[in-house]
Amino acid sequence: MKPRRPQDRRPRHRAMIVAPQPDAVEAGAAVLAEGGSAIDAAIACALMQGVVDPLMCGVAGLGVLHVHDTRTGRSEVIDGLSTVPAAATPTMWEGIFEGECKDGYGYVLRGAVNETGHGAVTTPGILRVFEAAHASYGRLPWADLFAPAIRRGREGWAVRPHVAAMFASDDRPYGRARMADKLAYSAEGRELYMDADAPKAMGRMVRNPNLAATLERLARKGAEEFYSGELAHLIVDDMKRHGGLLSMEDLAGFRIRRGAPLTITYRGRTVAAPAPAAGGIVVLEMLRILERFDLVAMGHNSPGYIRTVAEAMKIAGRDKERHVGDPDRAPAPVGRLLSDAYADECAAAIARGEKASLDRMTGDSKDTTQVCCWDADGLVVSLTHTLGLPSGAIPPGTGFMLNGAMNWYDPRPGRPNSIGPGSRRFSSMSPTLVFEDGQPAVSIGAPGGAWIGVAVLQGLLNLLDWGMGIQDAVMAPRFSATTNAIDISNRIPRAVEAAVAEAGYAVNRSAHSYPFAALHGITGWDGVLEGGADPQRDGYAAGV
Predict the structure, then answer these.
(1) Which of 55, 98, 111, 220 has its CB surrounded by the most CB atoms within 10 Å?
(2) Do strands 107-109 and 97-100 pair parallel, antiparallel, or not at all (unpaired)?
(3) Do residues 538 and 19 make contact, with C-beta atoms less than 8 angstroms apart?
């Protein structure tokens, strides 16, 4: 007898959530099961992320949320990227500038004042994002969304592999501080996250009752408590004691930005991504260029494929460096960068064998995280949020670490991302949605600094050109060209590496199996929800 073909017994879910942290996925899935919307679940998931991944994100962070409501056809981006405090001046750190970080993530200043401590803090925006999204798209009460994170903060959580790796990471070779120095910066941080002189190792428990109490306060009083209430005063008093820039006026005056995403057509589908100051322009420009090539004919991750896609990465990176910063101060030429004529010009240069020059593509921190969620009513969400770099500063008794996003700003005046009161810096965060025949088909995004754009690009190519399922798409070997060199995963064969090098490229082989950001996503082709989580971050997709 012939063997019977295995039947497809995969469950059919009405809703789904995916994120890099198991506790956070569990919290979001529980909200979906209770009848909450995708926004409710994403907020609950994100709040839990701030508890169990405290160097990645938190209530004093920033982020970008992209949402589509199938019932109304409405898509919007809610931009909560942080702003420079009003007390900052364009030249205040010019005299202590020592260089750019060697990997492109930020700037090196004498004393690391832009990275560690209270002077590194920008005006946080993420709670305003959650507040606005919940008011427009939430179903469950605001306070209910905090309950899982409050419980986990009080009962504790075990340090998992990726968190342990981040706690122990040492970025001094790149020009940044050790994470251990951030964890030990405050007395509260030492108590929470250190064992003697070393960060807590994998499996050690962290209990944070102060953070649980802060979350209870925010659950009762709303986001306004953070921006003008007693909590705001507590933050600012701590700033004053330690020479920080952030003021009550900065907090009370913070405003999110709401608007339509940028959209293009790629291979007959609509791809939507956030406009500057967020990073969607980079992803969309690369897609516009690459649509001019038959990528499938080249072979997946073949030498020719890597060379072609890498050149598109370099061109978009170069254009970002030249043209994209705070849109309020220097609007990017979005129309030209996404035009047919410019895409034709760039594709022709690649086809001729020209090599674009990109000395370095600066980006935001790798210390970021992601949530994708899709509910039974067709509300689809992609959220990327971060602390920038963790500053190490924890206002006494609050349990949360403040962002260190001043490290993103160029201390040299007159540049697209220079320091300026109230300015917003370009961020690579690119929570992206794809539509087919007007219906949502993909929600995708990634943490990973300057690598976010190149990772989201490859995830989209894997889905839209290669027809991969979402799990295969997010875990396929990736490469990156955020400088003139091409960085490759150690799962790309050495014969391919040699061929790319023979074409005249410097090639750097990563020691990591899943490098270059951490893709997470959900697809809804033909109404069937499937989720994919990048293995490097310990997360998973849960359906209900």
Answers:
(1) 55
(2) antiparallel
(3) no
Strand order in the sheet with 479-480: 479-480, 486-488, 507-509
Task: Report the candidate in 487, 498, 492 with the shortest Cα–Cα distance to residue 513.
Answer: 492
Residues 57, 126 contacting (CB under 8 angstroms): yes
3-state secondary structure of 75: strand
Q: What is the mean pLDDT of the chain?
A: 94
Answer for the pair 492, 301: CB distance below 8 angstroms, yes or no.
yes
Domains of the chain: 16-157+208-258+369-399 (no CATH), 259-364+429-543 (3.60.20.40)
Strand-pair category, 486-488 with 507-509: parallel
Nearest to 232 by CA among 242, 218, 213: 218
| Measured CA distances, 414 to 151, 328, 329, 418, 420 (Å) | 47, 15, 11, 6, 10
Q: Cα torsion for 326, 328, 332, 338, to the nearest 10°?
A: 110
Q: Whole-angstrom Cα distance, residue 446 to residue 372?
A: 10
Place of tokens 């970008």: 64
DSSP H/E element including 80: strand 74-80
Rounded distance between C-alpha atoms, residue 6 and residue 324, angstroms: 51
Beta strands at 97-100 and 262-266: parallel, antiparallel or unpaired:
unpaired
- pLDDT tens-digit map of 169-200: 888 877 788 899 999 999 999 999 999 889 99
> Which of 106, 178, 50, 127 has the alpha carbon at shortest distance from 428?
106
Q: Evaluate if residue 452 carries a pLDDT over 80.
A: yes
What percent of the chain has pLDDT above 90?
A: 86
Number of Cβ within 10 Å of residue 8's Cβ equals 5
Q: What whole-number distance in Å separates Cα of residue 72 and Cα of residue 329?
A: 33
pLDDT at 496: 98
Between CA 227 and CA 218 the distance in angstroms is: 11
Please name the amino acid found at residue 96: I
In contact, 382 and 435? CB cutoff 8 Å: no
Banded model confidence at residue 321, pLDDT cuts 50, 70, 90: confident
Cis check: omega of the bond before 260, within 30 degrees of 0 = no
* pLDDT of res. 330: 80
Q: What whole-number distance in Å separates Cα of residue 114 and Cα of residue 127?
A: 23
What residues act catalytically? 368
**Run of H or E including 486:** strand 486-488
CB-count exposure of residue 411 (10 Å: 0-12, 13-18, 19+): buried
Q: Which two tokens stand for residue 147?
A: 């309950």
pTM, to two decimals:
0.95
Tokens of 161: 């592999």
DSSP codes, 355-392: ----S------S-EEEEEEE-TT-EEEEEEEE-SSB--
- Residue 298 burial by Cβ neighbours in a 10 Å radius (0-12, 13-18, 19+): middle
* Other beta carbons less than 10 A from residue 106's beta carbon: 28
Contact of 23 with 52, CB cutoff 8 Å: yes
Instruction: Show the tokens assigned to 477.
Output: 């070997």
Query: Which secondary-structure segment (H or E) carries 349?
Result: helix 340-351
Quick one: DSSP state of residue 485? S
